[in-house]
Amino acid sequence: MKDDQLSIFDAVEHGDTNCARVIELDGGDVTYHPGCFPADEADRLFEEVNATTTWRQEMIWMFGREVPVPRLTAWVGDPGKTYTYSNIALQPAPWTSPLLEIKACVEHAAATTFNSVLLNLYRNGADGVAWHRDDERELGRAPVIASVSLGATRRFQLRQRSNNVERSELDLQHGSLLLMRGDTQHVWEHQVPKTAKPVGPRVNLTFRTII
């Protein structure tokens, strides 16, 4: 293990995650760790992930026409771990060193192993992701989704599927980890809304297990 990895593992091992917070959701299981990655490590990883990722501008069909997805994406994982969402079929690119470093830390914190990660680059406030659930068949019945945020802080919102009224929201900070488990993806939807406020780029990595 490299010396520069030790501070990341040490933060998780000793609970130095700036007071991990349980998000109270009826039927959901969500925990937020605002300081999972120390600031200097988060800064370095943000730059390294950006520099080593081949970002793509995917297209989707909406209202009878093809439009660009409002963010850049990449899919990385073990060989053969394909993933399909919104009629977009993704073949995994190989793991890079910074992604493996983050993956090792996230697996330690979540006590779970992951074989893939979906990366999203929100270039500015005009980029976002609409209400959705990570409930694709290849993720299994009760997936564990580990979401790492690097870069600008963005608002993350959840709403209950049964009524669309009960909601929760929080700001995902630089170096944070959000864990979603259990029935969360069946009971709740989530989004990162667009914003007119000036905001810098944010890289989001959602680690998953394709079965």
Into which percentage range does the β-strand content fall?
A: 35-45%
The level of helicity is 10-25%
Instruction: Give the topology string: H per helix, E per strand.
Output: HEEHEEEEEHEEEEEEHEE
Judged by helices, strands and strand pairing, the structural class is alpha+beta
How far do the termini sit from each other?
28 Å
Set out the fold topology.
Layout: H1 3-13, E1 21-23, E2 29-33, H2 39-52, E3 59-62, E4 65-68, E5 72-77, E6 83-85, E7 88-90, H3 97-110, E8 116-122, E9 129-132, E10 145-151, E11 154-160, E12 167-172, E13 176-181, H4 184-187, E14 188-192, E15 202-208
Antiparallel strand pairs: 1-2, 2-13, 3-4, 5-8, 6-7, 8-15, 9-14, 10-13, 10-15, 11-12, 11-14
Helix pairs in contact: 1-3
Q: What characteristics describe this protein?
A:
about 210 residues, alpha+beta, four-stranded antiparallel beta sheet, about 20% helix, globular, disordered N terminus
Please characterize this protein's 3D structure.
By secondary structure, the protein is α+β, with helices and mostly antiparallel strands. The protein is built from four helices and 15 strands. A seven-stranded antiparallel beta sheet has the order 1-2-13-10-15-8-5. A four-stranded antiparallel beta sheet has the order 9-14-11-12. Helix 1 (3-13) runs parallel beside helix 3 (97-110). Mean pLDDT is 91; it is low at 1-17.
